[in-house]
Write a structure and sequence with these properties.
Blueprint (H helix, E strand, L loop, with lengths): L2 H9 L13 E3 L1 H7 L3 E5 L9 H10 L3 H6 L1 E4 L3 H13 L3 E5 L5 H9 L3 E4 L4 H15 L2 E2 L6 H17 L6 E5 L4 H13 L4 E7 L4 H8 L22 H10 L2 E5 L1 H15 L9 H11 L8 E5 L9 H11 L3 E9 L4 H9 L4 E5 L7 E9 L3 H13 L3 E4 L4 H5 L15 E9 L4 H9 L4 E7 L6 E9 L2 H14 L2 E4 L4 H6 L2
Parallel strand pairs: 2-10, 3-4, 3-6, 4-5, 7-8, 7-10, 8-9
Antiparallel strand pairs: 1-2, 11-13, 11-14, 12-13, 15-17, 15-18, 16-17
Length: about 500
């Protein structure tokens, strides 16, 4: 499979039957002003299913022969691909069955059901749903519609590149594309390199789901042990075989961004368009900003693919909270101040006219107090200068701006230190977030270890994140880690994390 074959398939695709007009290419005026060059957003969030996935799914299904259509279609998906298959099947009057993990947010499950497809909820993640899909397909003879690793699916996504070439001037410098399994990036990169190879095509992944980046760097497909839970639309452990070959051949670069940068990208798009993208949908904007900040964004106008907008409403609070950090507008510190009347006032006078965004405190001793404080800043330089200023004034402080434990758990925990817990160890744990998930986790853990601390905060994603403290003596900690491994949850010890040391231990 090479770039010319993808171009030929894209030119002969059936996508126009379901997306008769090109999706808009909107100028991002505020972002353009900040970056000093024209930035345009390819609005794939405006398709009938609010995602680019409709293109590949429809093209693949529309090209089926009558015998396969009669047997119906089936696919495994945690969201957008499922909606693309269901929508396409309804338009083509074909039976559709979608296999989705039990952890899939209800908003996505209901969207598929409203489109008339049958839904099977199997497993706790995409891999288990995919295995269930293969089993049902073998028993029923239904045709499996791959999410990304299929020439006709890739060609359907590649029609975005054809539209961009018609919508832009010849001086277009770059296109920035999100990557999950690689179908979108492979299709766009293949067409661009076949038609106008001087345009640079750059892929972007979350730094906790970077299978394509690692695969390209090592020269072979890499399977991740775990993937991140925030940008669920691109949470893929292994990229496709065909998509890997095309991306390795046609992408000019591949980079990763943080959760905070993704949230800042969501905010940028909202400010320019009033549209609310899902995290995966804002990946390209986050990557574009990273390229601009390190001076590696190619010259000329640039296009970022706004790939989708299927997000649960209650996830927006988390995104808004993290966006300030992602755009370097907030810095978070642990600061030690004297425990005496007037100490907080003195601290505020030292800060001066800097705006405090958050202040958490609880009495822990009669000598000193550890405070969790956030400042509004104009950039990382100001954060570093603030830390130096605090140290010059005699305050002990620690920058927690990039500390995930601090941002996910500690800032929401006001209780402070416990003098009663003995031999406490702390673990951050991820587990499938579905009804009964807490009970299943605790039951599997058993009653051997006393839980001394527990914090959970919903992010509206497929996996829940908790911070858990256990009373476990040194000789018993190996058994605790072995039990966590046997349960199958993702975990990391946080006992020595600076945020925990300041506020929880």
């Amino acid at each position: 499979m090479d770039r010319n074959e993808i171009l030929t398939r894209a030119l002969n695709s059936r996508v126009v039957e379901v997306i008769p007009e090109p999706t808009p290419l909107d100028p991002a005026r505020r972002l353009s002003e900040r970056l000093g060059r024209p930035v345009m957003l390819k609005r794939e969030d405006l398709t009938p299913i609010f995602s680019f996935k409709l293109r590949g799914a429809y093209n693949r299904i529309a090209l089926l022969d009558e015998a396969r259509r009669a047997r119906g279609v089936i696919a495994a998906s945690a969201g957008n691909h499922a909606q693309g298959v269901a929508y396409s099947a309804r338009k083509l009057e074909i039976d559709a069955r979608l296999v989705m993990p039990r952890t899939t947010p209800e908003i996505k499950v209901e969207a598929v059901r409203r489109l008339g497809a049958e839904v099977d909820l199997i497993g706790d993640d995409y891999a288990e749903a995919e295995a269930g899909c293969a089993d049902i397909a073998a028993r029923t003879g239904m045709t499996v519609i791959p999410a990304y690793d299929d020439p006709d699916v890739i060609a359907g996504q590649a029609t975005i590149a054809l539209e961009i070439l018609r919508q832009t001037a010849p001086d277009l410098g770059s296109i920035v594309v999100p990557i999950g399994g690689g179908g979108l990036a492979a299709g766009i990169a293949a067409v661009i390199k076949a038609v106008r190879p001087r345009i640079r095509v750059i892929g972007v992944e979350p730094d906790d789901s970077d299978a394509m980046t690692r695969s390209i760097r090592t020269g072979r497909r890499v399977t991740l042990d775990r993937v991140g839970i925030f940008a669920d639309g691109v949470a893929v452990r292994t990229v496709g075989e065909t998509t890997f070959e095309l991306c390795r051949d046609c992408l000019d670069d591949c980079l990763t961004v943080s959760i905070d940068e993704i949230c800042a990208g969501m905010k940028d798009v909202f400010e320019d368009t009033r549209a609310v993208l899902e995290p995966a949908g804002a990946l390209a904007v986050a990557g574009l900003k990273r390229l601009a900040s390190n001076g590696s964004l190619p010259e000329g106008p640039t296009v970022a693919i706004a790939s989708g907008a299927n997000i649960s409403f209650h996830r927006l609070a988390f995104a808004a909270e993290r966006a300030l950090v992602g755009e370097h507008r907030e810095a978070i510190f642990a600061v030690t101040i004297p425990e005496r009347p007037g100490a907080f006032l003195e601290f505020c006078r030292v800060i001066g006219d800097r705006n405090i965004t958050e202040f958490n405190y609880r009495l822990s001793s009669r000598d000193e107090a550890h405070i969790f404080v956030g400042f509004e800043i104009s950039g990382r330089d100001e954060a570093e200068e603030t830390e130096r200023m605090l140290r010059r004034c005699g305050y002990r402080c620690h920058d927690l701006t990039d500390n995930e434990l601090a941002k996910t758990h500690v800032r929401h925990m006001i209780g402070g230190h416990s003098r009663s817990s003995a031999d406490e160890v702390l673990y951050s744990i991820s587990f499938p977030d579905r009804p009964g998930g807490f009970l299943k986790f605790l039951s599997a853990l058993g009653g051997r270890w006393n839980i001394s601390l527990f914090h959970y905060r919903s992010q509206g994603s497929a996996y829940g994140r908790i911070l858990c403290g256990f009373e476990a003596r040194g000789c018993d900690r190996g058994a605790l880690r072995a039990r966590l491994d046997s349960i199958g949850v993702a975990w990391a010890e946080e006992t020595e994390n600076p945020a925990a040391a300041f506020f929880l231990r």
